[in-house]
Amino acid sequence: MDGSEPSSVLEVMRQQWASMVSMGGMFVGTILLGLSIQPIYDVDEVRAFGAEGASKGGYVALELLFIMIFTVLIIWLARKGLDFAIKAIVMLALGMSLFYIVMPYVWLLFNILGISSNDLILGSSIAICISLMAMLVKYPEWYVVNTVGVLVGAGVITLIGVSFVPVLIIAFMIAAAVYDHWAVNSSKHMLELADTMIKNKLPVLLVAPKGRGYSFIEEDDQVMRSETPEGMDWDDPAPHIKPKSDGRGALFMGLGDIIFPGMLVISSVSFLPEWGPEIGTIFGTMYAGPLAVGLGTLFGGLCGYVALMTQVARGEAQAGLPLLNGGSILGYLVSGVIAIGPAALWQDISFL
Fold it and tell me: What average pLDDT does the segment 132-147 reach?
């Protein structure tokens, strides 16, 4: 590599700072939105596998298996041209996840208005979810996709975060990061999956336009797989960097790149010892110690995001989880040792 690469990368980052900051804002905003509803779902009845399942590694392995099966299924359906089936599966999952973030805020609004009808709250929440799904189908522009994506992401990180202790979440994150690196850089099937989602305009990724005239509706469905130039010299990639443009009108980030760091934030607040003064929130109470660890985890993830953007500036599709998960785990460990001590960071776990 010659001396021109760092300046070229910095120049690309300077030109794309607005979209990178926008994507970073969605990264932080999604996690904070999930954190806001954490007190409501931090009860044993809501945990995916109950109170005992929170420390069972077998359930985490099952979650990872489901992710792989989902990926294979979506790619198979795409290759068969069954886009309608892909939309049906994804939209059903999105709608269910969306409900968990919408309902608390509908309840809050009705509570402010002095309305206490549970049936009305439930019906209004369902109506909002259906309306958002209909808008997504009818007009899947980038701001609609981002709105639904942020809401869905917040719901998912909360439901999974309250279901597993941090040690298992970290194991889950490491396994997912290894898989993501292989799926993007070796098999490249994750790029095919991303292109399938772009083609069907589904909010399992977030979009940060680089210019005012950008339209996600008109986006090419081969944008991710066309990222890697033919004949790339990986020993000296600097000549392939394009300072003026990387050929895309927007930055893309998979929702999973936010969900995994966010899960550790929620899990930290949910399962670490209740140390420090109580902090009142709009939906319940948190404790200063676990909250400090959660915010430290978020900061670590944000540092990983900045490092990821230096790689994205090279004009190639990147596996996000190794850097994002790595930064989040490091942030968890450092802030945990400082805030509550190293002994409190370990939870006893078993496979079954």
Answer: 90
Mean pLDDT of the chain: 85
Consecutive H or E run containing 251: strand 250-254
Q: Strand 278-281 vs strand 284-287: parallel, antiparallel, or unpaired?
A: antiparallel
Domain that holds residue 81: 24-223+236-260
Q: How far apart are CA 206 and CA 22, in angstroms?
A: 10
Q: Is residue 228 part of a domain?
A: no
Cα–Cα distance for residue pair 330/323, rounded to 1 Å: 10
Compute the C-alpha angle 258/283/33, nearest 5°.
20
CB of 268 within 8 A of CB of 290? yes
Task: Please state, in angstroms and rounded to a whole number, the distance separating the CA atoms of residues 257 and 136.
Answer: 21
Q: What are phi and psi of 234, to 5 degrees?
A: -70, -15
Residue 255 to residues 105, 204, 207, 214, Cα–Cα distance (Å): 22, 5, 10, 20
pTM above 0.85, yes or no: yes
Token pair 């007190």 is found at: 39
Phi and psi for 277 in degrees, rounded to 5? -65, 155
The total number of structural domains in the chain stands at 1
Distance CA 54, CA 52 (A): 5
User: Which whole number is the average pLDDT over 175-189?
Assistant: 85
The answer to the question of residue 266 being in a domain is no
